[in-house]
Design goal:
This is Hormone-sensitive lipase isoform X1. There is one protein chain. The protein is α/β, with parallel strands linked by helices. 47% of the residues lie in helices and 8% in strands. The strands form 2 sheets. Strands 10-9-1-4-6-5-7-8-11-12 form a 10-stranded mixed β-sheet, sandwiched between helices. Strands 2-3 form a two-stranded antiparallel sheet. α14 links the parallel β5 and β6.
Length: 824
């Protein structure tokens, strides 16, 4: 009997190894085999069958096991097989029709293909787990409880993807073949009402990042853990020590992390999104590009004062462009100049024999219209400047919700007009101008091109768009559904960013409302403020805006200060100008920090010295903190200002003895660090040992925590019903064909798993139909915003290199060959 069992197991493993050899390609590549065949695509068909065989083998093995985990494993494998039988015909139909929606045969990619790839990735994930169980189940230390959770999570994942496939079939019936957007008015509510609601938890738990490249999964998992932990500190549930402890739980408890992330996505305000994304602006992250990226000779901020600009139109007439005033009034506009070399005529860079470059890249950063800056995008901008050897001018436009549409667009247009008059000072002849932008920045440069065409000004020689949202609304499309499982751009984040930028009438708030939003749920109708995650402690209610001293600053106040860093608060024009601008360098060792960096320095110094202080305990009560020495603090601030950067025009640097300065700084920092640690420890010890009443959670509290799972039953669109104007400057996809026909050559780069993929594909199709020169690249396994991870992941770095190739083609278009299908 034992021999027979051993022989059967050996035969199974031999069969398993043969199956494994049949599909070694990635799921995205396998999904490209979308040929209409009765047997389906050969690699993926074998993959689904192999998973069923493996599940059947494991189910047969665990069926006699009468332990709880043994029976759960048996039921888990049987359930997984049922889901495979349900999902296969649905995904097979989508696989066959997906090629009809591509831009062309050489650029396969659309939302339908993306979901086929996601389902295939899920099957591969399940096959991997099932084989692990099969090979380890006879071992003495086999962990049944671990694999129970893994198999059940995989089953829930496949079930949720089955629901998504039902939605895709609905979308196929709403639009003719080839169109990814419905031809008639259909709301997200109509779509979600066609099938069961989607369990979002399974996408952010144990299976988080299953659809991405292996090099990205660890990064995305780390970001998700940081997001969940940051929300603890942001909403001030206790002091930092308890927040760190809870953050550590998100590392070891995927289910807890999933509930937290879904809750954040559905309930957190746009100010939380701003605060979390602004972590990329912290002092530590600011230093990463200079340490890891290419070295550049020029990296400076230029503050453009709000003055009228006279520019020439294409027919030689002069026209005056007024500075933007909408929403936040007249403000100076910051732009960043990055160049690998100092060039002749560059303002503030002394003499140089290197002639000006013929080209320049006009860049707009991403960030959902609400966050980030040119500084947080330096990771790849430095590489671009070094490899392309042309100056890059990146625009720090104002951010929503303080500055919604059309403020950012007007600022980008204004900066372009200023650039047209200052080519020499930027180190270029201006012979070739290429627009480049990612995410929200891609939307802005496309809208700016429309505005330029309308105004009769000189148009750029080319546009490079990276994962661009070109239709700013939640129009039902297959790719839009990808945000239901996106770790970087969850559904709630995307909707709140779009709402903050595109619907100022519904998102505009008073200062008091904005302050409350940083401590509570943004939507008053949301019933989630009692779920234990986003509830405001009594001590936080009514906190005054703008703390008067460090002893009153809590972690939530600090996050709020960072979140509210927008155009009106970080732009102050300089009194002294060079060619109508103030130039500020970040690479010299003396001088005064620019206004933008000064505010960041205060935040960074506070984080560094007082991160262990807290003004509330875990019950929301005030506890004493160590008040810093204001004199020493002011002195250290002055020192930081003199070390960070210089203003090439304006005040001379402060002069001091460097040895004495270093000694004072070291002594001050040691003293303050010791006081801060001892103060935090003594406060925590007093709280623990004090005569505080020990309270247990009430039945209502326990019921609320248990009912967190009821969130699954809510439609993800319930709280995001708002209207967006059909303005082509807001959504370039709606632009008039006569204007689009005048567009310069366009190069689009996006990814299979991008919620904005269909925007890019449909916009490229529209340009191609008009006879424009356009090309599109669709990369696999990378997330929206991958350029920000170009220093961390190999595939992201390769994607950044492809961006450089496409931009170079636009810069050298005269010598670049074009193909028959209008591709570059």
């Amino acid at each position: 009997m034992m021999r027979l069992k051993f022989f059967s197991r050996g035969f199974y493993f031999h069969k398993r190894s043969l199956c494994k050899m049949a599909f070694t390609e990635s799921p995205a590549k396998a999904s490209l085999c979308c040929e209409e065949s009765t047997e389906g695509a050969a690699p993926t068909y074998a993959m689904y069958e192999a998973l069923k065989d493996s599940c059947q083998n494991n189910a047969t093995y665990f069926q006699p096991d009468d332990t709880e985990n043994g029976q759960r494993l048996y039921q888990g494998f049987m359930t997984l097989m049922d889901h495979i039988d349900t999902v296969w015909p649905l995904v097979d139909h989508v696989r066959k029709v997906a090629p009809l929606y591509d831009f062309d045969a050489a650029s396969p990619g659309n939302g339908y293909r993306s979901f086929v790839s996601v389902v295939d990735s899920c099957v591969l994930h399940g096959l991997k787990i099932s084989r692990q169980v099969c090979s380890a189940r006879d071992a003495l230390l086999f962990r049944k409880s671990y694999f129970v959770r893994e198999i059940e999570s995989c089953g829930q994942l496949l079930a949720s993807l089955g629901t998504c496939l039902h939605h895709l079939h609905t979308l196929l019936s709403w639009a003719p073949p080839g169109d990814l957007f419905p031809t008639e008015q259909h709301s997200p509510e109509q779509l979600f009402s066609q099938a069961d609601t989607i369990n979002q938890y399974c996408f952010y738990g144990r299976c988080l990042g299953f659809q991405f490249n292996p090099s990205m999964r660890g990064i995305l998992k780390g970001i998700s853990i940081c997001m969940a932990g940051f929300s603890e500190a942001y909403y001030s549930h206790g002091n930092l020590i308890s927040s760190v402890w809870t953050g550590g739980q998100y590392l070891i408890d995927p289910e807890m992390r999933a509930r937290r992330i879904v809750n954040i996505s559905q309930s957190a305000s746009v100010e939380f999104c701003k605060a979390f994304w602004f972590l990329a602006e912290s002092e530590i992250m600011k230093r990463v590009p200079s340490l890891m990226s290419s070295t550049v000779a020029v990296n400076k901020l230029i503050t453009i004062p709000p003055e009228p600009i006279t520019v020439l139109t294409t027919d030689g007439k002069e026209t005056t462009v007024l500075p933007p005033t909408v929403h936040i009034g007249l403000q100076g506009l910051n732009v960043r100049l990055i160049s690998v070399n100092k060039r002749m005529g560059m303002a503030g860079e002394g003499s140089s024999n290197l002639p000006p470059a013929d080209g320049i890249i006009f860049h707009c950063h991403g960030g959902g219209f609400v966050a980030q800056s040119s500084k947080s995008h330096e990771t790849y901008l430095r590489e671009w400047a070094a490899k392309l050897n042309v100056p890059i001018l990146s625009i720090d436009y104002s951010l929503a919700p303080q500055a919604p549409f059309p403020r950012a667009l007007e600022e980008v247009y204004y900066a372009y007009c200023w650039m047209m008059n200052n080519f020499k000072e930027l180190g270029t002849t201006g012979k070739r101008i290429v627009f480049a932008g990612d995410s929200a920045g891609a939307n802005l440069i496309t809208g700016c091109t429309l505005k330029i065409l309308t105004s009769g000004l000189r148009t750029p020689e080319g546009l490079f768009l990276a994962y661009a949202p070109l239709l700013v609304s939640f129009i039902p499309s297959p790719a839009r559904l990808l945000c239901l499982m996106d770790p970087l751009l969850p559904f709630g984040f995307m909707m709140r960013c779009l709402k903050a930028y595109a619907s100022p009438n519904t998102s505009g708030k008073s200062k008091e409302d904005k302050h409350k939003d940083t401590n509570a749920v943004s939507n008053a109708t949301t019933p989630l403020d009692s779920n234990g995650f986003l509830k405001v402690s009594p001590s936080q209610e009514g906190v005054s805006e703008g703390p008067s001293s460090f002893e009153e600053v809590s972690p939530s106040d600090l996050a709020e200060l960072q979140a509210h860093k927008s155009g009106s608060e970080r732009r102050k024009s300089s009194d002294t100008t060079i060619s109508a601008a103030s130039l500020q360098s970040e690479h010299t060792a003396t001088g005064v920090t620019p206004p933008e960096d000064k505010s960041q320095q205060y935040v960074s110094d506070f984080l560094e010295r007082y991160v262990l202080d807290s003004d509330t305990d875990s019950e929301g009560r005030r506890i004493p903190v160590i008040k810093p020495n204001n004199k020493a603090l002011d002195e250290s601030h002055r020192e930081a200002e003199s070390e960070a950067s210089s203003t090439l025009v304006g005040e001379p640097p402060l002069v001091d003895d460097p040895d004495q300065k270093d000694k004072r700084r070291i002594k001050t920092r040691i003293s303050e660090a010791a006081n801060s640690v001892m103060g935090a420890m003594s406060s925590k010890l007093a709280y623990i040992t004090g005569s505080n009443t020990i309270t247990r959670p009430t039945q209502d509290d326990l019921a609320v925590r248990t009912n967190l799972d009821a969130l699954i039953a809510r439609s993800p669109s319930d709280e995001f019903i708002f209207s967006v104007p059909r303005d082509p400057l807001l959504s370039p996809y709606w632009a008039d064909e006569q204007l689009l026909n005048k567009f310069p050559p366009v190069r689009i780069l996006t990814v299979h798993l991008d919620p904005c993929l269909d925007d890019c594909v449909m916009f490229a199709k529209k340009l191609k139909k008009l006879g424009n020169i356009v090309g599109i690249d669709v990369l696999e396994g990378l997330p929206h915003g991958f350029l920000n991870f170009s220093l961390m992941a190999k595939e992201a770095n390769e994607g950044s290199k492809l961006c450089m190739e496409r931009i170079k083609q636009l810069l050298d278009l005269d010598s670049a060959p074009t193909s028959d299908n209008n591709r570059l």
